[in-house]
Amino acid sequence: MRSRLNSLFDALLPVLATLAALAVGAVMLIILRVSPVEAYGALWEGAFGSTNAIAETLVKSVPLLLVGLGICIAFRASVINIGAEGQMIIGGLLATQIGIVFTDLPGWLVIVMAIFAGFLGGAIWGGIPGALKAYFNVNEILSTVMMNAIAVQIMNFMLRGPMIDPVQLEKASKIPQTARLAEAFRLPRLAPTRLHLGFIIAIALAILVYILLWRTTLGYRIRAVGQNPHASRYGGIRVRRRIVTALLLSGALAGIAGAIQVYGVNYRMITDGSSTGFTGGAGFNGIVAALFGQLHPIGTIPASIFFGALLVGANKMQRAVQIPSALIGALNGLVVIFVVGSEIWRRKRQKVRLSAEDSEDENKSPPLEPDTSTDIPEEVIA
Amino acid sequence: MTENKLPSGHTRIDSLEMRGITKRFPGVLANDKVDFDVRSGEVHALLGENGAGKSTLMKVLYGMYGPEEGDIFLNGKKITIDSPTDSINHGIGMIHQHFMLVETLTVAENVALGLPSSRGFLTDLDKVSERILELADIYGLKIDPDAYIWQLSVGQQQRVEIIKALYRGAALLILDEPTAVLTPQEVDEFFVIMRQMVADGHGLIFISHKLHEIMDICDRVTVLRDGAKIGTKTIADITKSELANWMVGREVIMTRELDDVERGKPRLSLENISCDSDRGTPALRSVSLDVHAGEILGLAGISGNGQRELAESITGLREVTNGKVILEGEDVTNFRPGDVTERMLSYVPEERMKDGMIKDFSISENMVLREHHISPFAEKGFLMLKTIAEHTDDMIQKFRVKTPSRETKAGSLSGGNIQKVVLAREISRNPRVLLAAQPTRGLDVGATEYVHAQLLEQRKNGTAIMMVSEDLDEVMALSDRIAVICEGEIMGIVPRNEATPQKLGLMMAGVVPEEEETRTTSFTL
Are the beta carbons of B357 and A223 separated by less than 8 Å? Predict the structure, then answer.
């Protein structure tokens, strides 16, 4: 009975944490002399208030989910991939190039090729830090972040030069953007909204990633390497290779996110000089979504939709009640801190509970005390 | 120095008494009205199988658990202990089985850790070092305050833990299986320290599974079984086998006769292999050994003399720099671990939690760690979860693993049950060669008995077994032949009937027996 209450509480914890974050946000709103009721009403309205709003929320969640899936794979292997921004960019660039070059091919084929190009681009951009980590012991957090910077400059260069829209080339303005994709190449829409096929693709990939991680030998190996590389080696697993595989797949999923962003939403690539101009920050927010989803591919689906809603709703809120945009950023940050914090708290609680239950079993292992175990996700959060 | 002061300058604890301690965990009575007391100047052993409630009782005393019932009296006065800080303030110290030391800090830094500095924000390590040397001098603990923990041997690290407790004013020490991690020599040194402390008026609580140690060092022994106290006796009034039966609650087989098994061909041959340690220094120097079908070759030696490296060289986990590893006629030198495993070599590693298990994986997942990729546990890259589950259930039953379910995380099992899972995995493959490193380290009498029976069963089946052990009793009880390793060299190989503890002990210390030739001839055995 008590354990059931406990697990119910655990399940509701992220929701409670979100409410707590909104409560703190309410205080900030009051200081700005804005009615929190009105503001949060607008937020809800913006995220779920109409078919269009819901569609926008889902559209926003697609890149979060795809990036988040990659994060699930990498973090399960104890590899911290902060490079999803760059991986999205490279994936997006390669995918765009497909649409620009193969204008004579049928639409579906170009879309398939583009998604594959996105996969490939992301895989390369994730695989390089993977190989550096596995074979040269280069810290992947640093290398993936640096790869982000490189990717942005490549994008800026490509969109200003080789890939620039021929129309822009003739104009004096020279806006750094590619040509628009042909209508046939755009991802089909699911309803008379902006919601596109990419959403279905992302959900399907979530299921595939779940199967990969828990039903295949490759997934077993990736998780084993993440938990205990020594025992993995003993078990005949080639640890270095699996580290590369994990980052490669992680990057590939982010690359697909880039491709789908181009083919489903923007229909071209355009840069404002920064990475978020293209990704909308999905490369970072996807990490939060994955953590919110407990690094489980299926859990990452609702988590992505939640953060998608927050992003979309916050826009509406800003317009409705006229608050500085910085507050929206702060509100997002609050939710992240509360949710991630509650997750750490939940694990600690669980550990205490477990160790109590441990001693009840007659098999009490040696004192666990200040647990120094390297729980990957926790390490990541902390 | 007044009457009730210890040489360390702290107040002596004349008596400490726990009365009627009851501690419940949801559904289980971990301690049932347990009485326990310890006096100044004695070693009181706390004995019991895993899960008997020893650790719980000591955690109550150390303030890590609050008991539901019962009181603690210090020098006849009732005290309350709500946290380890309380118990430290009362002069109670605890040496945990797993050391609580920061490897990258020095001895002095570790001792000072968590204590206020006399210089406020600045450290006062010079003062700390001075006091450490003072304590070390009083108790005969050789230690360099400026040494880094990672540079120290396990025995030295333990001394740091003792110093840490003494530094904090411990008059009474709880020693939780302190010898489990020590070599026989280190145990002897440790006992000298213990005797010194007792002579000085400290009270010691000694938790151990090793009966001969209890007979050796303790004054009284209290036995716990299933959370209840069975009784307390003076060591002088009880024999070793009585103690064993008392603890387990049934007759225990202390010695075994080896069945006659015909020795077959050599299945594993090492030809002059050498390798380096993790630090890059030579760990093995031209080791040659044969292990035959149907025999147990015991590898005796003080831990850290190349045993671990030897096992890792054979299993492909460590690079062999010179020489050959021959497995059933095939040269497998520097093969990948997976390829060696595939040739039906099984390996029970010494550090089973670190090297042999993934503690956040379920028992099922751990059960197939070696063969997760091959039929019947995997087909075309997919895990056959049903087959794995059935196999695991089967193994749990056969090897009597105590666990709520096969989905239980391996990390939450006790040491004995973890070893059973490892053994189940390694033995159920019907290996041609079995390498077992310290297979019973840290296990209680019952579990040890079980592991020994399994090894002998494998021997009967004709498996070639190499058993690495520091426990001479174990080596002599189970081995057909005993090889002794010292500083990475094989000092000689002694047949079962010629082995005596004295002879093996000398060889472990690096003395080559006279009648034996050098190791090059012993290799032809």
Answer: no
User: What would you report as the CA-atom Rg of chain A, rounded to the nearest whole angstrom?
Assistant: 22
Mean pLDDT (chain B) is: 87
Do both B399 and B286 map to the same domain?
no
Same domain for B452 and B484: yes
CATH number at residue B19: 3.40.50.300
The answer on B329 and B244 residing in a single domain is no
Do B462 and B379 share a structural domain? no
Residue B414 confidence (pLDDT): 78
Within-domain flag for B7: no
Query: What is the spatial distance between Cα A354 and Cα B295, in angstroms, rounded to a whole number?
Result: 43
Q: Choose one of B191, B221, B248: the last residue of a domain.
A: B248
Asked if B382 lies within 8 A of A366 by C-beta distance, the reply is: no
Residue B279 in this model has a pLDDT that exceeds 80: no
Name the phi and psi angles at B515, rounded to 5: -70, -20
B299, B440: one domain: yes
Q: How far is B125 from chain A (nearest CA, A)?
A: 24
Check whether residue B227 and residue B373 sit in a common domain.
no
Q: Whose CA is closest to A75, among A287, A355, A326, A361?
A: A287
CA distance B234 to chain A (A): 27
Closest Cβ opposite residue A235 in set B339, B369, B442? B369
Point out the domain boundary residue: B248, B269, B290.
Answer: B248
pLDDT at A1: 53
Which tens digits make up the pLDDT trace of A107-120? Answer: 999 999 999 999 99
Local structure of residue B432 (DSSP, 8 states): S
Domain containing B44 equals: 15-99+171-248
Of B147, B135, B152, B34, nearest to B93 (Cα)?
A: B135
Contacting B with CB below 8 Å, chain A residues are: 2, 214-218, 220-221, 223-224, 227-228, 230-238, 354, 356-367, 369-370, 373, 375
Residue B151 forms part of a structural domain: no
- Confidence at residue B521, expressed as pLDDT on a 0 to 100 scale: 41
Name the strand (E) or helix (H) holding A319.
helix A297-321
Does ipTM top 0.90? no
Spans of chain A, pLDDT less than 50 = 356-382
In a domain, B136, yes or no: no
Query: Could you write out the DSSP letters of every residue in B109-160?
Result: HHHHTTSPPTBTTB--HHHHHHHHHHHHHHHT----TTSBGGGS-HHHHHHH
Percent of residues, chain B, with pLDDT higher than 90: 50
- Say yes or no for a CB contact (<8 Å) between B354 and A218: no
Number of domains in chain B: 3
